[in-house]
Design a protein that fits this description.
By secondary structure, the chain is α+β, with helices and mostly antiparallel strands. It has 2 domains: about 110 residues, Ribosomal protein L22/L17 (Ribosomal Protein L22, Chain A), CATH 3.90.470.10; about 35 residues. It is built from 4 helices and 5 strands; from the N terminus they run βαααββββα. It has a 3-stranded antiparallel sheet. α2 runs antiparallel to α3. The radius of gyration is 31 Å and the shape is flat. The chain starts with a strand and ends in a 25-residue tail after the last helix.
Length: about 170
């Protein structure tokens, strides 16, 4: 069952937050925390706090173990933009956009397969590999049959005049 946590109106541009979010997407919670520990980006601190909140939700509300959780989805959307103005030369002004972002983090539990499921999965995969090997062997045999009988025709060599290259003289 997915566990969600949200962070809204974070005063960091979504483009900068996405760089950190892409780094931890799909990772286990403990791996994500170590990656965040060694990153120097400003968006690390709020993301770490959000990840801690999501794991606390999972433990308290659903009884999941932290070691079995991974980040299944992390979305960084754009929030409202604060518009400010800076004075410039000749009485002009320059617009400044202070962007905000909304982050949604979804954790999910890693499902452990039973022995029966593993065996069924292994049975399904084996025939496909055998078919591919047979096709490759057939292709190799066909190549071996075709190559010795092909004889390349040699073209007669004709002397050609060298091409003239226009070169501009240095001034």
């Amino acid at each position: 069952m997915p566990v969600t946590a949200q962070l809204k109106y974070l005063r960091i541009a979504p483009r900068k937050v996405r760089q950190v979010a892409d780094m931890i997407r799909g990772k286990r919670v403990d791996q994500a925390l170590t990656l965040l520990d060694f990153s120097t980006k400003r968006a690390v601190k709020p993301l770490k706090k959000l990840l801690a909140s999501a794991t606390a939700n999972a433990r308290h509300n659903f009884g999941f173990k932290t070691s079995n959780l991974f980040i299944s989805k992390i979305l960084v959307n754009e929030g409202p933009t604060l518009k400010r103005v800076r004075a410039r030369a000749f009485g002009r002004f320059f617009p400044i956009h202070k962007r905000t972002s909304h982050i949604e983090l979804v954790l999910d539990e890693i499902k452990k397969m039973s022995k029966k499921e593993k065996e069924e999965k292994a049975k399904v995969k084996k025939p496909l590999k055998d078919k591919k090997r047979e096709r490759e062997k057939q292709k190799k045999k066909l190549k071996q049959l075709r190559t010795p009988y092909r004889i390349k025709k040699q073209r007669p060599r004709v002397k050609e005049e060298p091409k003239r290259i226009f070169r501009r003289k240095a001034f």
